[in-house]
Amino acid sequence: MVAEGLATELRRLLPDARVESASLAMVAHADAPDCVVALAGADASATVDTIAQFRAQGGNGGIVLVVDDPATVDVSLVAMLGIDAVLAAQRMDIELLPALHRVFTAPSRVTRDAGALARYLTRCHALLAAGLSVTRLPHRLNNPLAALLAEAELLRLDALTTEQRESVDRILEISQRLIAEVRQLEGMSGGPA
Is the pTM of this model over 0.70? Predict the structure, then answer.
């Protein structure tokens, strides 16, 4: 987020970037900008306070601070707040694009993005492994279910009491329901129907 004059110039130079103009006080409450270009002028203290508030609220985007005289900005404060670049206002037209390039290619930013990507890939790997297990499940269940059904059918041929026959019938019914469920799993997993 930048002042309107700079916003117009950045839109021209970076047509694919989302460039907004806002007061710096709004930046502290912004929806996670990737980078903030803060125009501080002669007195950077109010701007630095707002940057500190932005960081305290979890803002982790890059920050380029533009001041009249970079020598007046406390170097330890710049490091503590994670300000990526401090530029002189009179040289901004020359130094801003290289500074933005450094912000977006900084190892800490790449590492942070790589960490998020690694966590995402780990979740994908776990889901893939679970999916493979599910695709094998119907095959692993079919053999024991077929054996259970066959044994129940053979048991039904024996002389049974009414109570025993009802139990065997329940075993047959449950086995057939399980076989139907396994066939549905096969259909979802792309296995044989």
Answer: no
Decide: helix, strand or coil at residue 64.
Answer: strand
pLDDT at res. 124: 66
Question: For the chain, which domains are there?
Answer: 4-105 (3.40.50.2300), 114-189 (1.10.287)
Which residues have C-beta within 8 Å of that of residue 183, sequence separation ≥ 6? 138, 193
49-78 burial by CB neighbour count: b if 16+ within 10 A, else e?
A: ebbeebbeeebebbbbbbbeebeebeeeeb
Look up residue 37 and give its two tokens.
């270009």
Each as own residue / partner, the long-range contacts of residues 91-98 (CB below 8 Å, 24 or more positions apart, any chain) are 92/6, 92/66, 93/9, 96/6, 96/10, 96/37, 96/64, 96/66, 97/13
